[in-house]
Amino acid sequence: MSSTSALKLFVYALDIVCALLALVLISFGIYVVVSYDLNEIGNLTAYGFIFLGAVALVILLWGYLSAWKENVCCTVTFVVFLWLIIASQFAVVFLLIHNEKSVASNLANPLEATWEEELSSPGAMSIYQNWFQCCGRGSPQDYIVNERLPPETCFRNHDKSKAENLIHTGCRVEFENYWLQLLQIFNILGCVLIGIELLISVISIRLCNSIRNDQRRSYF
Questions:
Q1: Alpha carbons 134 and 162: distance in angstroms, whole number
Q2: pLDDT tens-digit map of 156-192
Q3: Are the CB atoms for 92 and 50 separated by under 8 Å?
Q4: pTM as predicted
Q5: Which residues contact 120 (CB under 8 A, 6 or more apart)?
């Protein structure tokens, strides 16, 4: 196998990995937008992940076609634009990482509306309390100050017969921790995507040199 063919296969393989990562990031962003009633910060975060994946898919398609055609001019242009996109992706990921806790807090805000609904329509908080094994907005005391006893979902195994089964952790902090863990995972995936894109740019430069050398040899 020639050097050019080997480099092309390497680029194709990395393109596929990047494309999969990009689709995961886009899917997460869409999930956040569709599943929750978000404020401005929540929307910006979701669209930030969609941006990371979408621009990667577009530029990687360009890179794939350039390598397939073995076109030096297109490949060089691809590398230049890839570096510009990497710079913009790095800025987005930096902001997402730097503001993880603030973003997680904003993404947890839909729970506030559910708590207000719980006060007028008992049972609305059950989905969170069953999901996170938590009780009330901040603690079981939230029910008591509203002249209500904690529901069964506030007890381990829904067993209200023993006082020690009462869960004392509030749902707000658990929901924030849930978002914080998700953000950390997808921010890491964003960093991995950028790292692979950098590797693709380096290999693409080597591919350009290899294609030029092949073209020079064909003249002799």
A1: 16
A2: 999 988 889 999 999 999 999 999 999 999 999 999 9
A3: no
A4: 0.85
A5: none
